[in-house]
Design goal:
Shape: elongated
Distance between the termini: 27 Å
Radius of gyration: 27 Å
Strand order of the largest sheet: 2-1-3
Number of domains: 1
Oligomer: single chain
Order of helices and strands: EHHHEHEH
Number of strands: 3
Length: 204
């Protein structure tokens, strides 16, 4: 499962081995423990995300059912309108059909807007939980910096923007250029988030 690349990424600031104000160098200073997290892998394996998406799918099915019912009413109103062609009831049938059509379009736009907002709330909740879990685990394990692992990111150009501009943006978006031997925290974070969810977070 590939997710959109708009998830915020922490910025890793590396120490350069230059003389420091007190005469020491970065190599002699206290080591900074860096952990990396594959956000796509974590999100893809989250029970919290899977549960929320199941609920969203159920909600989408309800909206589809409402839409289907409205379309049936529209089809009936259209038949009445066609049957009334040339009669005194034609104008009334046309008005009834147009009113129903207007209601249908408005309701579908409203329902789809609600569904889109619920999707946004899903990702906001997931990302907030991810950051909070990373904070707690980092404090417990002594990690100084946690960054999103973008080392496997691939360049997928589009036709809308010049290729050179796209690749320059791709380079600017990279957050990890070199990280030595970082702690791979992906499995740790995913496991702990699913444990927290199973322990009762789904009831909140």
């Amino acid at each position: 499962m590939r997710l959109a690349s708009w998830f915020p990424l922490a910025v890793l600031v590396g120490w350069i081995g230059a003389d420091m104000a007190d005469g020491t160098t970065a190599s002699s200073a206290s080591a900074v423990i860096v952990a990396v997290v594959d956000i796509e892998e974590v999100i893809g394996g989250l029970e919290q995300r899977a549960d929320a998406e199941r609920r969203l799918q159920a909600r989408a099915a309800e909206i589809q059912a409402e839409g289907d019912a409205f379309q049936s009413r529209l089809a009936e109103a259209e038949q009445v309108m066609q049957a009334a062609e040339g009669s005194a009831a034609q104008r009334e049938a046309i008005v009834a059909f147009k009113n129903l059509e207007f209601q249908y379009e408005g309701k579908m736009a409203y329902w789809n807007d609600i569904l889109e907002r619920e999707r946004v709330k899903l990702w906001q909740s997931v990302f907030a939980s991810l950051r909070e879990e990373i904070r707690k685990i980092s404090e417990a394990r002594g990690w100084d910096v946690v960054v999103a692992d973008d080392s496997s990111a691939e360049f997928f150009p589009s036709r809308d923007v010049p290729l050179e501009a796209q690749y320059k943006q791709f380079m600017r978006d990279r957050r990890i250029l070199y990280a030595g031997q970082p702690v791979n925290a992906t499995a740790i974070i995913l496991d702990q988030m699913n444990r927290s969810w199973a322990a009762g977070s789904q009831g909140e």
